[in-house]
Amino acid sequence: MGGTTLKLLFSTSLTLPKWVALGAFFYSKGGVYMPQVAIMLPNGTVEKVDRESKESLDALRQVAALLLKAALQDQFKGIRLGEAVAEEDQFFVDSDKDNQQVSADELEGLERAVKKLAKENLKIELVKVSVDDAVKAVEGDQFSSELLKENAEDGQVSLYKMGDATILAQAPIMLYANLVKNVKLLSVAGAYWKGMSSNPMLQRIYGTVFFKKEDLEADLKARQEARERDHRVIGNQLDLFFVDPKVGAGLPYWMPKGSTIRRTIERYVIDKEVGDGYEHVYTPVLMNLDAYKTSGHWDHYREDMFPPMDMGDGELLELRPMNCPSHIQIYKHHIRSYRELPLRIAELGMMHRYEKSGALSGLQRVREMTLNDGHTFVALDQIQDEFAKILKLIMDVYKDFNINDYTFRLSYRDPKNTEKYFANDEMWERSQSMLKAAMDSMGLDYYEAEGEAAFYGPKLDIQTKTALGNDETMSTIQLDFMLPEKFDLHYVGEDGKQHRPVMIHRGVVGTMERFVAYLTEIYKGAFPTWLAPNQVNIIPVSDEKHGDYADDLAREFRAAQLRTVVDHRSEKMGYKIRESQTQKVPYTLVVGEDEVANGTVSVRKYGEKDQVSMSKQDFLDLILHDVATYSRED
Questions:
Q1: What secondary structure does DSSP assign to 445-496, as a single string?
Q2: In terms of DSSP H, where are the helices of 194-335?
Q3: Of 17-26, 405-414, 425-434, which range is least confident?
Q4: 216-273 pLDDT, tens per residue?
Q5: I want to staple 464 with a disulfide (CB 3.0 to 4.6 A). Which of 112, 406, 408, 553 is the partner?
Q6: Which of 247, 250, 274, 244 is nearest to 351 (CA)?
Q7: Which residues, 6+ apart, have CB-to-CB distance to 221 below 8 Å?
Q8: Percent of the chain beyond pLDDT 70?
Q9: Which is more confidently placed, 523 or 154?
Q10: If you average pLDDT over every residue of the chain, what do you get?
């Protein structure tokens, strides 16, 4: 059979069947002809895959990354190139130049260059070269040199080659570039070399590509929606928070408006928990390292903890990554009786976790966070009732925040993973069966996931859908037989003897940072009235004539605990009304001659074009009802 030959330098040549030369072909499935494509693996093996499969899209993105690398090399002589990677839904190339970096304005020209190269239908070859020759060929480019040396094997390195452009052979790739038709370069961003802040900052150019034009258009539409909902963008537009790497990457600064939203949530949560029998506490953010060695966090969680601080006298203090050892100390401070159980302890506890710079993202991935945390100490026969009580609390909170799209996941250990999970088969089997029985007794649907448990016990994870349809764990309830054992916890039973309690860990809304990010994206910045940082914006038609009336209204509204602002600026009224809408204030009131004379207000609700005139008292009744019902439609 004839075929196409791929030359492997310093290796034998590989003869491929004729269908490879076509790049794309079809096969029959149930009488329907389905498209397939040929992809090559880093070892030189060629496979047929369905064009609609994830594997084919990944390989297409890898080709697109190679084409972008070739276009960068062609248009910017002397450019240094880092990683060229195909990700889950995009591809990127890292680069660095001596002069000004590639600007966003230059993406369109680069995109045309990528498409032009694709039309040339250049064949992609797998070559193996000596690492010394490969490094010599990229002399002056320290990033490419480092990648080549790291990926060398037996003195050689495998490369995908297309014309003068090469890319490391680390993932499957499409054999022909002509399939890269529907491609779009998306954005430029900064990225530390290998994701470490101690390394140089490179420029990362993102792009996406699809086989079909309609798929590309749908993807771009979804990305636009994501940009409009991105809590980082909205946070900047509404002045809610900021993060400045110069003063601390992953350490958010909450501006007054963002602080108001967060404080409203915190007050709500505390009141809700106190009403449910929790005792709120404050505990230090520092703890002796020995406590985390006892709990097992140091063994199982060390990579996510900051280095200990040596106090100079042999004491090592640790920024806490978890609150549970702190609440255990609260429990241990007194001798406990069975009459105190269930003992419910809660805290808005600040924690610190080491996150690599490349993983940090707005409020969603941070290094300092405040967890809505709680721990209940119970007797064995109280587990099921307490579990149901906690779950009811969580579902009540979801209702008030209008969170309706969620599922239940029972997260078990992976019994084969002896490094991650505490070794006690009897404990795991007992706690997992009790968790499952509690869910079954409530008649709730759930699915089971092995390998998702905490290292000390199984848990119920409540999975919510983000604004963009992604799965995210919002709340957890965890059974723990291990920590009471490790910290030797007891209570005096009715029989006068000591008994071991069971510990239930639970988080209702997770961290304040991630929850605010979630709500910002779900609401698209238009927070419901009870959460909005500014609930009422009063605009006098003439500040000289109507400003005093506006101030009188504001004082009365503030006395009713409504967050109210009066816009006294000398801007045109139309501009001030538009800005109030842009800032997504729930209620904008315009007051002029008629309103002053009649003691009324002209009300415009966010998102509506019409203004409605009503008495001051009717408006107060309206907005206070809105706040009291958590702005729910029902």
A1: --EEEET-SBTTB-EEEEEEE-TTS-EEEEEEEEEESHHHHHTT--EE-TTS
A2: 213-229, 231-237, 245-248, 256-275, 289-295, 297-301, 324-332
A3: 17-26
A4: 999 999 888 888 889 999 999 999 999 998 888 899 999 999 999 999 999 999 999 9
A5: 406
A6: 250
A7: none
A8: 93
A9: 523
A10: 86
Whether pTM exceeds 0.85: no
| Contact present, 206 and 91 (Cβ < 8 Å) | yes
CA-closest candidate to residue 34, choices 52, 60, 58, 19: 52
Q: Which of 225, 234, 496, 276 is nearest to 386 (CA)?
A: 276
- Give CA angle at 558 (555, 564), nearest 5°: 95
- Among 61, 160, 169, which Cα is nearest to 114's? 61
Q: Given this model, what pLDDT does residue 345 score?
A: 97
Contact 110, 72 (CB under 8 A): yes
DSSP code string of 101-167:
PPPGGGHHHHHHHHHHHHHTTPBPEEEEEEHHHHHHHTTT-HHHHHHHHHT-BTTEEEEEEETTEEE
Note the CATH number of domain 529-629: 3.40.50.800
- Residue 375 annotated in ligand binding: yes
Q: Domain residues of the chain, as ranges?
A: 46-213, 241-513, 529-629
Q: What is the rounded distance in angstroms from the CA atom of residue 362 to the CA atom of residue 229?
A: 13
Determine if residue 505 is labeled as part of a ligand binding site: yes
Is residue 625 part of an annotated ligand binding site?
Answer: no
Question: Tokens 């005139």, residue?
Answer: 613
The residues, ordered by sequence, that sit 6+ positions from 228 with a Cβ below 8 Å of its Cβ are 524
Residue 9 has pLDDT above 50, yes or no: no
- Report d(CA 376, CA 501) in Å as an integer: 10
Q: Say which CATH topology domain 241-513 has.
A: BirA Bifunctional Protein; domain 2 (3.30.930)
CATH code, 46-213: 3.30.980.10
Element spanning 514, H or E? helix 512-523
